[in-house]
Amino acid sequence: MRPLYETQRLMRGIRRAALQRGVIAVLDLGTSKTACLVLRFDGPQRVGGDGVGPMAGQAQFKVIGHAVTRSRGVRWGEVDSMRETESAIRTAVQQAQAAAQVRVDHVIVCFSGARPESFALFGEAEVEGPTVDGWDIGRVLASCEAPEIGPGREVLHAHPVHWSLDHRMGLSDPRGQVGRQLAADLHLLSVDGAAIETLLLCLKRCDLECAGIASSAYVSGLSSLVEDEQELGAVCIDMGGGTTGLSIFVRKHMIYADSVRMGGDHVTSDISMGLQMPAPLAERIKTLHGGVVATGKDDRELIPIGGDTGDWEHDRRKVSRTELIGIMRPRVEEILEEVRARLDRAGFDHLPGQSIVLTGGGSLIPGLDGLAARILGRKVRLGRPLRVQGLPVAATGAAFSAAVGLTLFAANPQDEWWDFEIPPDRQSARSFKRAMRWFKENW
Where in this chain does the record put each SHS2 domain (predicted)? Predict the structure, then answer.
């Protein structure tokens, strides 16, 4: 077993090397679709400054290739069938490579499953030199007490959220500043270790080297929330096919993440069972005629179901849109009620800003924003990913929020625990490594 700290540092090193070479791919492995974008980094500021994080600056990039294919072998945002998932990844990456006319060896991947759980940590230490440097930050992070994340759990993200230096609070980056006592609040996100190991092994079988891994809820928030929302406080709800992820941002940092193991595919399944039709046809009817708010004219709008069973009466059936909405709405309400319970548990009501942004493919259901506003008790807007250079029109919809956010994550990653040297003689550092072992050495 390789410790978390060493493995994440290794992936950061791989990412820096890939950015220096100028080409890297990002892979959004979802339950319903697998999307791949190939990025090219140009200019003298390909990777600015020393190290990784806000001090390194944002690299300039352009999307030069993209591909989308139907996911296979993925359930609830996790790999369910290794062979089918490998086939879907190979298809998406090869099509993106063909569009970009370059070969890709390194990918940064995001996923939505593995049951994420958030922890808040605190650490402090005295500054040894005249100004704060990376070594002082490492000692502060090493002083954080390791939480009991449970057996088989691993750490996916560990972001320093809030810095304070003596009497100065709310610093975004204390490096280079003068002070004596440095303290930090750290957000730690843990996930099921087996799901991560399986995903990385699948990438290895596809002859791809992992240069980074991220939570879909996190990167969706990066692309869908505007700057003011990230600063004042907002939640991003990413309604995917198999899961609905949520992430809370304050002061441009994620402070909480969770997921509900229900999504758009469950709505499709309800339609398929309720109307006794194949799942592909149920998905088509949901996309073309679905909704969650019925009106008076919906009783008169008849939807032909069709079919090729050979039974004339069965294949000539029609249902009203009101009946379709009656099947879809209970499941959507169940998802939103579960999201509200997670937000209440996280203390979302106590944030200075309480914006709610809906994104993901599931957010395209007509009338969902109004229903979500009534259930969540807040004004809700539909979020779309930010535009990045070279992004095709087909990839600008809400379903691509995670993929676009992953490009921002690749170009301008935030500081994490493993970006700093942790003193090996610190007891808390040793206990942190014991509690949070990462992947097997041969992944």
Answer: 24-224
